[in-house]
Specification:
The chain is α/β, with parallel strands linked by helices. It has helices spanning about 1-30, 45-60, 85-95, 110-125, 155-165, 180-190, 215-225, 240-245, 265-270, 290-305, 310-330, 335-340; strands spanning about 30-40, 70, 70-80, 105, 125-130, 145-150, 170-175, 200-205, 230-235, 255-260, 280, 345-350, 350-355, 360-365, 365-370, 380-390.
Amino acid sequence: MNKILRTAAVCLAVCSVAFSVSSNNSFAAEPIKIAHVYGKTGPFEAYAKQSHVGLMMGLEYATDGTMEIDGRTIEVIEKDTQLKPDIGRAMLAEAYGDDEVELAVGPVSSGVALAMLQVAEEYEKLLIVEPAVADSITGANFNRYIFRTSRNSSQDAIANAVALAQDGASIATLAQDYAFGRDGVAAFKAAVAKTNAKLVFEEYAPTDTKDFTASAQRIFNALKDEPGRKFLFVVWAGGGNPLAKINAMNPERYGIEIATGGNILAALTAYKAMPGMEGATYYYYEIPQNPVNDWLVKEHQARYNSPPDFFTAGGMAAGIAAVEAIRKAGSTDTEALITAMEGMQFEGPKGLMKFRAEDHQALQSMYHFKIRVDPEVEWGIPELVRELTIEDMDIPIQN
């Protein structure tokens, strides 16, 4: 009887160990779920597609092609905001609640992003904002669960102010009448105020504007009698093509030069009619010189027969940041991730990036450019004038 009991005890112990090993292996094999909540449909569809391609390539690059972290497979769940704030909120809540994702990335629109921030706080889960740029995302509406790899409006504004705010220059702005445009102009205005240039007029137009005649006339009237060099600085995303339409109205007859920031390759076609135009950009594939961007350019060209675009780089940065954070934290626990990410530095396609601890904004280089025209290239080429590094820009903390 004792022998039988001993045999049973051994069997029980072996079974317990086997069960424990099996359970541990099962736990280790659980996927790391990441939601990409972005506007797959709507006016910013092109931006969204680039962002998603970049995110997947960033995850691939950071995991050396395995799409695994510590033996756990990365699973990306896509959610379409349709560029509507209420749907964005619902999709993010669904991702955190029903899909039980560890973190989320997105969205494209600043307006949608602002609606989603509180959801991250309610669920106590991370949202890596990419590519929405409104300052208020990591400013007035910031909460500790928000990190942003995208540049913010202040980074755009300060870089463009460096390019345009020459001594004595007079500047007017044209922007979309929503968070992206208004935050962009507010940041630009603050940056210009620190120079000897002056902002003399602000014009806002609905995001779906197609006829810019009235706006252009108000801008021309405001600028035409101003002394010194005169710029119209355009802050615009999506359709409408205000650059080409206003340029066709011959602003040069009043001595007015059009200026703007960088954009996707399709939008840069309009820049070809404006050789010598200056501004500052977040990314153009030929500018950064580093191993990450070299890989991105080579692989994107091979896979898609085109160079990576403006928002591809941002998506890649978000993917790399997510992997680096999980590795550094040694966990997907939210509190561990926040601790790991505050002050975290990592290399993206633009080079060094750093999450500022105070507002979780990624500090990064921007690029002062001048448009060069090549007959063999479909778009105006943003040729580098000067790289503006993290140290070159005093980005305000606004929360």
